[in-house]
């Protein structure tokens, strides 16, 4: 019997898990997919928002500003890339300037620090590549950029180091109420817990409906993005927004913490919660809209595109509450933008709800907030590199030429708590495959390393989700490879 079961290992579920790991409680984190951060968390704008956009008095407004202020300390503890570069909301006419004034006043109410309204000359002095048609902008220095999946993975890793149990490929299919808690049925058996935290993202409404009458809907809203090569990563220095609409914050242009540039998203409401494909129409739309901010978007440097789904709530605000008639069952649903920014503050609030529901949360002296630093070989000094290669020669072997990632780094992120189990899992943690060739050269070597480290046949290596096999078998029989696969299979049987 667990004290708390968390359903969903996106950035919200991982934030709650880490916060709970401070206390003397038995916690399990359930995830239906093959990895952490495999839903909305892996495909978004990667922005830490300032907080001027949300309606004053809303949960979005409160937790955006509170969460934003926590990122410096949090990312330092967890060794997650974060840069507080600031944002600009651009105005192109008198109507836009009025909208920016409204955002400024809303930001003051929400508690956003150090905002200012800039004129054309000030904007172009900061960002000379922007359109000369700009009239002014709202500047929010507190905004930033972060590695979203890296943050979720780091929080999960730290939570596991502090006692949380992770169960992957454990899709929740049914929940039954017990006299003291809940019985949760998953693909991998049953779990019992006194308290349940529903952080199921796009499926939070369906999980809610397992214990109560429907009270909200989650609407999948697809957003598509273009990713640009690092050679143009400094095209803009800040997060560049256009004036927001009812569908979102518009098409943005922003650098990433790894030196790329992204442009997007569009906003398309869908019926399917798994529609992650990109479309010619959507990508054409974001390129066209991006030209409003700057006529010189470096389209020649696009290296890939991706799509993500936002969990848009029918209520218009975050849903964070204990479910009426289901004591100890807490919904954390509809966490769309600025959910990434709000995550650490939401986690603290969820613990308050647990306490109000009767949970005894006693801090444990053994909690350690510092995650072991990730090894980024190319950021080391020559002396540090030589010392590391002396200890482990695999750090002297480059696997990904585009991003200069070594075999030692890949082995390290596979062997960590909540380590990589798939090709995309390696990609999210150590970045092989994110460069100009998009894995064309390093992909096969990453597969070989995964097969070796996980002691599986290379045909069992997944790209990402369950069933996403890359290889089905050899085209020619290689006796040495066949014998090594046979040895692995024999060892597993023993």
Can you walk me through this structure?
It is a single chain. This protein is of the alpha+beta class and 494 residues long. The chain folds into three domains: 1-82 and 143-217 and 314-373, FAD/NAD(P)-binding domain; 83-142 and 218-313, D-Amino Acid Oxidase, Chain A, domain 2; 377-493. The chain contains 14 helices and 22 strands. The chain has helices at residues 11-20, 59-68, 71-78, 94-110, 120-126, 148-161, 204-208, 280-293, 339-356, 382-391, 407-415, 423-430, 443-454, 479-493; strands spanning 2-7, 27-30, 47-48, 82-83, 87-91, 116-119, 136-140, 144-146, 165-167, 172-178, 181-186, 189-198, 218-228, 239-242, 252-255, 261-264, 268-269, 302-313, 319-322, 329-333, 398-400, 405-406. Strands 1, 2, 9, 10, 11, 12, 19 and 20 form an eight-stranded mixed β-sheet that branches. Strands 13, 15, 16, 17 and 18 form a five-stranded antiparallel β-sheet that branches. Helix 1 packs parallel to helix 6 and helix 1 packs across helix 9. The chain is globular and about 60 Å long. The relative contact order is 0.15. Residues 3-352 form the FAD dependent oxidoreductase domain. Residues 398-452 form the BFD-like [2Fe-2S]-binding domain. Its EC number is 1.1.5.3. Keywords: Oxidoreductase. GO terms for molecular function: glycerol-3-phosphate dehydrogenase (quinone) activity.
């Amino acid at each position: 019997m667990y004290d708390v079961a968390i359903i969903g290992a996106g950035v919200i579920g991982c934030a709650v898990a880490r916060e709970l790991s401070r206390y003397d409680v038995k916690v399990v984190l359930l995830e239906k997919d093959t990895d952490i951060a495999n839903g909305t968390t892996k495909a978004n704008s990667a922005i830490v928002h300032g907080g001027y956009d949300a309606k004053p008095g809303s949960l979005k407004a409160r937790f955006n500003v509170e969460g934003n202020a926590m990122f410096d300390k949090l990312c330092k503890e967890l060794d997650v890339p974060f840069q507080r570069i600031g944002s600009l909301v651009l105005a192109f006419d008198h109507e836009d300037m009025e909208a920016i004034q409204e955002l400024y006043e809303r930001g003051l109410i929400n508690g956003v620090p150090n905002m200012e309204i800039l004129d054309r000359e000030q904007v172009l002095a900061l960002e000379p590549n922007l359109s000369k048609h700009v009239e002014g902008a709202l500047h929010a220095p507190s905004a930033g950029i972060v590695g979203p999946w890296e943050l979720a993975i780091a929080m999960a890793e730290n939570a596991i180091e502090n006692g949380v149990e992770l169960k992957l490929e454990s899709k929740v299919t049914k929940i039954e109420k017990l006299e003291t808690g809940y019985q949760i049925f998953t693909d991998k058996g049953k779990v019992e817990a006194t308290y349940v935290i529903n952080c199921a993202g796009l499926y939070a409404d369906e999980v809610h409906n397992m214990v109560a009458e429907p009270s909200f809907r989650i609407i999948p809203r697809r957003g598509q993005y273009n990713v640009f090569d690092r050679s143009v990563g400094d095209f803009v220095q800040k997060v560049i927004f256009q004036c927001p609409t009812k569908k979102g914050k518009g098409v943005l242009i922003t650098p990433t913490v790894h030196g790329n540039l992204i442009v997007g998203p569009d906003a398309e409401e869908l019926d399917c919660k798994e529609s992650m494909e990109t479309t010619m129409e959507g990508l054409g739309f974001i390129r066209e809209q991006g030209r409003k901010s700057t006529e010189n978007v470096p389209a020649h440097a696009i290296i890939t595109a991706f799509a993500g789904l936002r969990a848009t709530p029918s209520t218009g605000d975050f849903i964070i509450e204990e479910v009426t008639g289901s004591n100890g069952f807490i919904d954390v649903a509809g966490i769309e933008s600025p959910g990434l920014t709000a995550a650490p503050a939401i986690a603290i609030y969820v613990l308050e709800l647990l306490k109000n529901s009767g949970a005894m949360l006693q801090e444990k002296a053994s909690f350690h907030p510092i995650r072991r630093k990730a090894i980024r070989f190319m950021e080391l000094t020559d002396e540090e590199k030589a010392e590391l290669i002396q200890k482990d020669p695999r750090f002297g072997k480059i696997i990904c030429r585009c991003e200069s990632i070594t075999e030692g780094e890949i082995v390290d992120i596979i062997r960590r708590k909540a380590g990589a189990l798939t090709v995309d899992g390696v990609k999210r943690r150590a970045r092989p495959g994110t460069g100009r060739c998009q894995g064309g050269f390093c992909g096969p070597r990453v597969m070989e390393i995964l097969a070796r480290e996980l002691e599986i046949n290379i045909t069992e290596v997944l790209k990402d989700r369950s069933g996403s096999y890359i290889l089905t078998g050899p085209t020619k029989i290689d006796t040495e490879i066949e014998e090594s696969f046979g040895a692995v299979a024999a060892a597993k049987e023993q």
